[in-house]
Amino acid sequence: MTDHRLEMKRRTLLLGSAAMAASAMLPQRSFAQGTPRRGGTFVVHYGAEQRMLNPSLQASTGVYIVGGKIQEPLVDLDALGNPVGVLAERWEAAPDGKTITFHLRRGVTWHDGKPFTSADVQFTAMAMWKKILNYGTTLQLFLTAVDTPDAHTAIFRYERPMPLNLLLRALPDLGYVSPKHLYETGDIRQNPVNLAPVGTGPFKFVQYERGQHIIADRNPNYWRPDAPYLDRIVWRVITDRSAAAAQLEAGQLHYSPFSGITISDIARLGRDPRFIVSTKGNEGNARTNTLEFNFRRKELSDVRVRRAIAHAINVPFFIENFLGDFAKLGTGPIPSVSTDFYPADNGPQYAYDKARAARLLDEAGYKPGAGGTRFAVRLLPAPWGEDISLWATFVQQALGEIGIRVEIVRNDGGGFLKQVYADHAFDLATGWHQYRNDPAVSTTVWYRSGQPPGAPWTNQWGWTDPEMDRIIDDAATEVDPVKRKALYARFQQRANSELPIWTPIEQIFVTTITAKARNHSNTPRWGSSTWHDLWLAE
Amino acid sequence: MRILSLAGRRLAASIPTLLLILIGVFLLLQFAPGDTVDAMMAQMGGGDAATARQLREFYGLDLSVPAQLGQYLWRLVRLDLGFSAIYGKPVATVIAERLPATILLMTASLSFAFFAGLVLGVVAARGVNRWPDTIISTLGLVFYATPSFWFGLMAIVVFSIYLQWLPAGGLEDITQVQTGIWRTLDIARHLVLPTLTLGLIFLAIYLRIMRASMLEVLNLDFVRTARAKGLDETRVVVRHVLRNALLPMVTLIGLQAGTMLGGSVVVESVFSLPGLGRLAYESVVQRDLNTLLGIVFVSALLVIAVNFLVDLLYARLDPRITPGG
């Protein structure tokens, strides 16, 4: 389903086969590979502490990596990326798309012993997903009610048609259920349970020492038979990336998710047989590097200038020399790992061609002035990762060569979001666009006009395109999967031809995990998943 | 009683300074673009405008800046440090949780730097311009010039990865439950590398000061008198020179206690220790004003307390100085 270059580094593959050959020589060992071993503590790198651990209230990998083992969603993705029931056993949609019924799993209990029922789903959907959860509020905007005819049926009623496929692809991230009995009184945001979550998952919350660690222990009453295998998971708070790599090497850590260590450490540990370094298991967290244009600048509102900028930058060179095997050429906002929506025709692409860039700029009327400079812009890089910082410098140099002088203005996270998405105090900005399995979840907001100022990662470019708005609105309520896919193909093509933002690089997070781990990285959002089948070999 | 009234006077005298620092930090953070809700959005990976508005009301950010400052100071008068936005707990609790690790690391590395600096300084001064002095002074310079994050990482590479003698980070081993003396030993083992890393930088300063101070005192008249009395060299150094040479060292401790509180962000990050430095750094990035001001307040109090103790120590070392004077 994915590009093989991204799926696994060739070297790791070779190492993997070497390990298999070695284990064939030791019969007991190879036997042990198939039979899960019980027990053991799995130690996880936790890079950025969050303000809460409840994934029904905050949708981010920093929450899923912990809360996703304690609480469970209605639906998750299986190895092939198809929706598979977790707390919901099965579902059906009415033909008009306005009613979706979930049949819930029976015999599931919360960690405090209370039974899990449709009332929990109703409460979570109406009070959390619809009102508080980021992206959930947009997804569930037209949800009017959740009916509970019995304890194991939840009927979602929508004012406008909700494509079943969209809901099922969004729910793995935006469909975690919280216990109603612990949340129904008091302010949900201030509930102490947010930092000591109670769920139905394979691991029970034990302790959270801020700045140090979180501990969760095996849930003996978990609904899946025999699971989980691990006795305990410990998340260790390590903010320094180099220190995390050192702790992996010292054997104090088993797993660093979501590219948590530096690019050079990833390359180094990739050569170390004690670790598996791969993008596998992160396909559900694809992202593209962006170049965002502010249309309030006269020069950048001209599509020829935007295209010229794209032509002026040698993206393959940058990928090869700075990002290595874990990145590839971007082809649009919908990444190539999205099997359901990736179109056959992505629309115009912008190959490296300096002469053409110069010609386009000349045509647009921006001829080189004194010292060869055509005009100057301010570029704001987001502080999310070292690739963005490198990319910003690369853009600065490449654009300098065609006569666009770039000043880089660096900010921390809060400052970046405020300056770009609220104050619009930028000419160019660069960061990541996160793709969440369906373009309607968090991709189309980058292109739809009418976003309120201040909403981060939305169309704040001053770009309005009625044609694009129409495609996005039609696709959001289109119930027929085939027609929806066709609409998103047009979305991708228009995004690439109008180029309000450019998505030159496609990346998937890199996992660094001990070679002793078994049953890991086996779903597209494994880092966020429950880890009920994960075990550690001797 | 005299000491208590002295302490009271000291505290009263530092209130204006404290107030100025707090207002300064408050205003400084207002100049940084973005507020704690922006930082939270950055952390969550996005959210809509309605959520952001609700959150701003929730954190009291919809008020004007003077109103926020006024509210903060009024709360402070009632000894209430407020509520931490990132931790969802009272700031006092958050700081209290971090204080032990900070103070442990600070005391350990300050004492290490002080005593090692003292011994090496004495050795260097007695062998002035000969090989022990040259070696010690060169080493001191190397320690002083090396960035602490590099030092820390190299220490981890050598002692944790290759030799596997010491843990690479954290305050204690959480994969096993330990109690009593074993837990203490475990924490001590975890603190060896951070203490050395933080201490070595300060060691160089103490070493230089001690050496200079020793050389100065060794040439004073009373030392010549002591030698003329026929005392042996060790007695002269220990009883007569050391005590007088210590005064500048003690001054330095008072000055550096403050630096160490804030200056350990790097060491705390490299060794994943839950200290005040990292907390302060995080509060700035997350624009958590209450927590940051709380840390500034507590650190200022700590520095005042340390300086007070230093003054008392002066009087003890040199009876000519009275603590009240």
Describe the structure.
The complex is a heterodimer of chains A (538) and B (325). In chain A, strands 13, 14, 15, 16, 17, 18 and 19 form a 7-stranded mixed sheet that branches. Chain A has a 4-stranded mixed sheet with strand order 1-10-9-8, covered by helices on one side. Chain A has 18 helices and 22 strands. Chain A has 538 residues and is of the alpha+beta class. Chain A has helices at residues 4-7, 10-25, 27-34, 61-70, 118-129, 136-139, 164-174, 180-183, 241-249, 263-270, 303-312, 315-323, 354-364, 386-401, 413-422, 439-442, 466-477, 481-498, and strands spanning 41-46, 75-77, 83-85, 88-93, 99-104, 143-150, 153-158, 203-209, 213-218, 232-237, 255-256, 275-278, 286-293, 327-329, 375-381, 404-408, 428-430, 432-434, 501-508, 511-514, 517-518, 535-536. Chain B is an all-alpha fold. Helices cover 77% and strands 0% of the residues of chain B. Chain B contains 13 helices and no strands. In chain B, helix 5 (91-126) runs antiparallel to helix 6, helix 5 (91-126) runs parallel beside helix 13 and helix 8 (180-218) crosses helix 10. The mean pLDDT of chain B is 84. The chains are: A alpha+beta (538), B mainly alpha (325). The interface between A and B is large, with 62 and 56 residues.
